[in-house]
């Protein structure tokens, strides 16, 4: 069975890695925090002392950290993956970062005959726990197919979007739509509930009408928290930048970003 590395054991990453361990993969993990490492060790994963050690072990490395700076540190920083990655290694970036960052890092990796693909995920912590994640992949189809069995341990909705960077661009579009949907659900539900309509009945009405959306379904039980608000803010910032570069006006996304403290429960 393929040797796998996983870096970044946050809200989603910990459960994505757990699913790999539960599936019996020869897994080595790394994070800067002790607690998730101990949980993964109990599940049978090996623990690395650095990203470079992960690269010495793994044929495929999955990276699920927060932002561009962290991805760069993991890949090209001191004791980073490219210090010891063997030719033929595949690095999978699950993080939502700038498309240009993926292009820059992939170019450096290619000089060492290491391949990189961008595969953002959707589903949050709940999706990772329940193995209902969806994946949007940019880069080589051949590399994606090598990684597909790993991804399928956490979800079977795996879409090849296009060339390198396309996965991230699709994720940014996805995040804009989610955020505007949350703003619509927040405003509609607030008007309905504060005017005296029972929240559960209103959710049923919305579910059965044209306003139905996955975000509106079960709105009163939806819970993301402060960390998710920070992630949404970062993702919308990237989406707004991409739209600006394309000369596209997206005022709804800008307003949603300003209202995240209200619309992300």
Structure description:
The protein is an alpha/beta fold and about 260 residues long. Helices cover about 50% and strands about 15% of the residues. It has 12 helices and 9 strands. Strand 2 (about 25-30), helix 2 and strand 3 form a beta-alpha-beta unit. The longest helix is centred in the C-terminal third of the chain and has 29 residues, at about 165-195. It is globular.
- By DSSP, the count of extended strands is 9
Give the CATH topology of the largest domain: Rossmann fold
The rounded distance between the terminal residues' Cα atoms is 41 Å
Question: Which spans of ≥5 residues are poorly predicted at pLDDT below 50?
Answer: none
CATH architecture of the largest domain: 3-Layer(aba) Sandwich
- CATH uppermost class of the largest domain: Alpha Beta
Strand content: 5-15%
Helix amount, in percent?
A: 40-55%
Number of domains: 2
Topology order in helix (H) and strand (E) letters: EHEHEHEHEHEEHEHEHHHHH
Kindly provide the radius of gyration, computed on alpha-carbon positions and rounded to a whole number of angstroms: 19 Å
Can you list the strand order of the major beta sheet? 3-2-1-4-5-6
Mean pLDDT: 96
Largest sheet: 6 strands, parallel
Furnish the topology, listing elements before pairings.
Layout: E1 3-7, H1 13-22, E2 26-30, H2 34-42, E3 46-47, H3 51-57, E4 60-63, H4 68-76, E5 90-93, H5 99-111, E6 115-118, E7 121-122, H6 124-130, E8 134-138, H7 141-151, E9 157-162, H8 166-194, H9 199-207, H10 226-246, H11 251-258, H12 260-263
Parallel strand pairs: 1-2, 1-4, 2-3, 4-5, 5-6, 8-9
Antiparallel strand pairs: 7-8
Helix pairs in contact: 8-10, 8-11
């Amino acid at each position: 069975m393929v040797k796998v590395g996983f870096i970044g054991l946050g809200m989603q990453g910990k459960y994505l890695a757990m699913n790999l361990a539960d599936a019996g993969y020869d897994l080595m993990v790394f994070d800067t925090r002790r607690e998730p490492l101990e949980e993964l060790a109990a599940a049978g994963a090996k623990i690395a002392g650095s990203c470079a050690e992960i690269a010495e072990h793994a044929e495929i490395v999955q990276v699920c950290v927060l932002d561009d700076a962290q991805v760069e540190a993991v890949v090209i920083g001191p004791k980073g993956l490219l210090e010891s990655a063997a030719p033929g290694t595949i690095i999978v970036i699950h993080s939502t970062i700038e498309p240009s960052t993926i292009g820059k890092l992939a170019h450096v990796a290619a000089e060492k005959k290491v391949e990189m693909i961008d595969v953002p995920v959707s589903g949050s912590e709940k999706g990772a726990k329940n193995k209902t994640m969806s994946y949007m992949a940019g880069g080589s189809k051949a590399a994606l197919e090598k990684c597909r069995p790993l991804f399928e341990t956490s979800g079977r909705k795996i879409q090849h979007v296009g060339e390198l960077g396309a996965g991230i661009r699709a994720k940014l579009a996805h995040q804009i739509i989610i955020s505007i949907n949350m703003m619509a659900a927040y405003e509609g539900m607030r008007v309905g509930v504060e005017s005296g309509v029972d929240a559960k009945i209103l959710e049923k009405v919305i579910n059965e009408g044209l306003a139905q959306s996955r975000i509106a379904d079960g709105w009163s039980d939806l819970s993301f928290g402060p960390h998710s608000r920070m992630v949404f803010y970062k993702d919308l910032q990237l989406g707004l930048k991409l739209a600006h570069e394309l000369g596209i006006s997206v005022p709804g996304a800008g307003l949603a970003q300003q209202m995240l403290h209200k619309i992300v429960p």
